[in-house]
Amino acid sequence: MEVILKEDVETLGHRGDVVKVANGYGRNYLLPQRLAIEATAGNKAVIAQMKESANRKAAKDKAAALEHAEKLNAVELTFERKVGANDVLFGSVTSADIAAELEKQGYEIDRRKIALDEPLKQIGEFHVSVKLFREVSAHVKVTVKSDDPNYVPGVKDVPVEEEVAAE
Q1: Is 57 domain-assigned?
Q2: Sign of torsion over alpha carbons 85, 90, 91, 97
C-alpha cells in the first residue's frame, strides 16, 4: 500500500513523502491516526501544495531555531548536589532537571530534546546538546558542583579519629 505522510514519522520519513508500507500498518495505524493519506492521483496533487507550504514553514521554523540556538549556546547552568567519595553525586542531574532549570531562565525546552545519554553523576563541567530542529542543535554548559562550601574536589573526608592518630 502506498501512502503520503501528513506528518513526520520517525521510522518512515518526512511530511509529504510517498512511502510504501504494509497494508495492515497503513490501514490500522497511519490512516486512523491521520499521519498519512492514501496515495491516489488526486491526493498527490493536494500533497504537492501541502509540501510547498511545509517547505516554507520549515524554512521559517529553522530560522527561528537557529536564532534560539544562538541564545542557548550562551546559557550556563549550575547544579549543586550532595557529593560523596570520589566526587560521585548522591543522585544525579537528569534531562528533566536541565529542562526545569532552562524553564526558570525563560527557555521552554522539552526534556526529550535534551541529548543526555545517561544522567550526570559526577561533579564537573559538561556540554549538553539540545536538539531544536532537524539539523539545528545548541550546546548548553552544565556545571555540577558540591552543595557543601567547604568541599574540596578529589579529597576524601577523613574521620576525626584518624586525624588525631596522624598527629
Answers
A1: yes
A2: negative
How many Cα atoms occupy the beta-carbon half-sphere of 31 within 13 Å? 14
First-last CA distance in the chain: 83
For residues 43 and 98, membership in a common domain is answered with: no
Identify whether residues 121 and 80 lie together within a single domain: yes
Residue with cell 501541502: 50
Q: Is residue 156 assigned to a domain?
A: no
Q: List pLDDT tens digits, range 74-99.
A: 999 999 988 887 878 888 999 999 99
**Residue ranges making up the domain that contains 35:** 2-67
State pLDDT tens for residues 105-145. 988 888 888 998 899 998 889 999 999 888 888 999 999 98
